[in-house]
Predict the structure.
Amino acid sequence: MTLEITSLSNKHIKHIKMLHKRKFREKNNEFIIEGLRIVEHGINSNANICAVYYSEEIIKTNRGIELLDNISSNNIDLYKVNDKILKEISTTDNSQGIIGIVKSQSYDLNKIINKDKFVLIILDRLQDPGNVGTIIRTADSAGVDGIIALKGTVDIYNSKTIRSTMGSIFTLPVIYVDEITDIINNLRSEDTDIIATTLQAEKYHFETKYKKRCAVIIGNEANGISEDLIELSNIKIKIPIIGKAESLNASIASGIIMYEMVRQNYFSEN
């Protein structure tokens, strides 16, 4: 059943506008998704979508009509709004006439680290939403088991981060951790390599033989990995820079390392 909302003072509209703020997203364990593709991804990934809001724009295409039918068949609350209201609740310039509200999912880190084989990516205070979203997407593509986001890392439910994940926000576990020291020490005691990316390393990323259990730390865009985490790691690696650039973008660097792991695990004859 579709209900129509015509007032900006409606309680649902007020609720969505509050979700633009991180503290309200965290309080309610909800976040906003916008656009045809991401809503389709959410449906196909069985995400816990609470409600969908749409305008006339979405029904101008067959794809949009099919999506609304799919939403209805999944018993998701569906609300029709006018263009003015949709623009008011949107965080983008072009929501394509559709916005969804999703319950964020919690993940158990122990379920990952208790496996015989896993790869984790640890994000140390990364600040750029696009970088973090791209890392999530790349990690999902490379078969990474999960991401640990340390205190100071940008909110993964930031609208720009979500767009950059291209749907991987629904399929790859991301776990926020305030204190990582005990976790790293426990991982190392269980024969897990903790790998730090630093320009001061002596080994290149392709010179390292990656174990079945490993965690790769990606550092802050401006300052790199904290000294404490470098000390906690047992392997230090760097990516060769042949030209005159001082460093690589964090998402590019992480992608290079992740796909070296893919090469070794799936395509190496050794």
Observations:
- The chain has two domains: 2-103, 109-267.
